[in-house]
Amino acid sequence: MQLKEESKKSGIPANVGSEHLKIGRFLALGVVLTSLIGLLHPSVKYILKNQLLEKDPLQVTMIVLLLTGTMAAAVLLFVTRQKMWLIVFAATTAVGVILLGMQDWVFQRQGFGAIFRRDDAWLVSHFYLGILVTLLMIFSMAIVPDIYKDRSQLWRNIHAIINSFALILFLSQGFTGARDLLEIPLGWQEKFVFGCDYTNKTCDNLIQKSAVWTGSQGS
Ligand code: HEM
Ligand code: HEM
Predict the structure, then answer these.
(1) Rounded to the nearest whole angstrom, what is the distance from the C-alpha of residue 201 to the centroid of ligand 2?
(2) CB-based contact 126:174 (threshold 8 Å)
(3) Distances (CA, A) of 170 to 36, 75, 197
(4) Cβ–Cβ contacts within 10 Å for residue 29, how many?
(5) How far apart, in Å, are the Cα atoms of 11 and each of 47, 147, 153, 157?
């Protein structure tokens, strides 16, 4: 009888749940901020390259407001414990991240916008998978009270399933992020790389440069 009672007890220490929640909250905030930094860099680059500060200061103001507002909403989501505010800040953070990611569409920009989204290959896109895992982290923060309240354990199981998927997405972010790092040229290389004609697969600008260079070497 005693043996039966003991075998029912879990070997997992009782404080594991609260430790997991503490670390989980930091993980979720960290992922949202990582995404915002990932979105900030190309946004600033686009603003500077297209002289938007002079040409369209309203657009720049809106991007700054969106970024700071989303960051503030993420921090408030991290600190708040009330169900209603969790929903409000989770929704605000999620909308902010999506709008920043789709800024070319929001501001109806012509041609290539700031964010390299890989619309034609979304399954291997650092952007789409990054936004998806960010949304999963925001969702995890918002459903904490439900995990504890729900006696049927439905929310607990939903949480375990979607966050197991999030683990795979974290791994894939490491691969696609490293690939994108290799694909994005350094600032001083940009004018050569983007000067190439990708349809006809020629780099006349480079050939001319090298001709000038070898010419000057020869003389
Ligand atoms: C990749 C990240 C994560 C994974 C793989 C994960 C996985 C899990 C698993 C397997 C459980 C146990 C379910 C059970 O008891 O049957 C759990 C519980 C829980 N998780 Fe997560 N989780 C992650 C992130 C998070 C985040 C970001 C939060 C909150 C912001 C969170 C909050 C919780 C809470 C409150 C519980 C219940 C703990 C308790 O019983 O006291 N988790 N999680
Ligand atoms: C939790 C993990 C991560 C998340 C959620 C995440 C999310 C994002 C997001 C949303 C963007 C903006 C969209 C884009 O330009 O593609 C971005 C950009 C980027 N990320 Fe990540 N990322 C993560 C990890 C990494 C890692 C590990 C690396 C490098 C190995 C990396 C490298 C990059 C690069 C190079 C950019 C492009 C920046 C630019 O265009 O100037 N990321 N990330």
Answers:
(1) 28
(2) no
(3) 16, 21, 35
(4) 19
(5) 55, 21, 20, 20
Please provide the average confidence, as pLDDT, over all residues in the chain.
90
Core vs surface per residue 174-194: b (16+ CB within 10 A) or e: eebeeeeeeeeeeeeeeeeee
Give me ligand 1 centre to Cα 177, in Å. Answer: 26
- DSSP 8-state symbol, 186: P
DSSP letter string, 8-54: HS-SS-TTHHHHHHHHHHHHHHHHHHHHHHHHHHHHHHHHHHTTHHH
Ligand 2 within 6 A of 138 CB?
Answer: no
- The answer to whether 39 and 58 are in contact (CB under 8 A) is no
**At a CB cut-off of 8 Å and minimum separation 6, what does 63 contact?**
43, 47, 100, 103
> Closest Cα to atom 24, ligand 1: which residue?
24
What is the whole-number distance in angstroms between the Cα of residue 156 and the centre of ligand 1? 7
Q: Is the CB of 27 under 6 A from ligand 1?
A: yes
Q: What is the pLDDT of residues 149-195, one digit of tens each?
A: 999 999 999 999 999 999 999 999 999 999 999 988 888 888 778 77
Phi, psi of 149 (to 5 degrees): -80, -40
Of all protein residues, the one whose alpha carbon is nearest to atom 27 of ligand 1 is: 24
